[in-house]
Please model this.
Amino acid sequence: MKAKLFLAVLLVVAFCVAYACDSNDNDKQLSGWSTPEKLGAPVNSDDVDSCVSISKDGLSLFFSSNRDDVGQFRRDLYVSERASTATSWGDPEPLTDLNNIGDW
Model:
């Protein structure tokens, strides 16, 4: 099972690196960090929400959380989506296929 998890993570990383190296984006300059702000409900919760990553198009927000906790230190992956960058984030949904890989 650990080998399958490692392979899945490796494939995701490889895809992200390939996608990030899109030749059309090579001339873009990054700006400085902006002031962080809470997203509020339904994304922020009273639980531990962390390890946030946003998709390149700004429409999917991935994070780890212990909401719906089923055991000590249990963290699951969630995604919250929105229709456009001008709209609010939707209710986070657990990434069930990734969260149910068994004990490791």
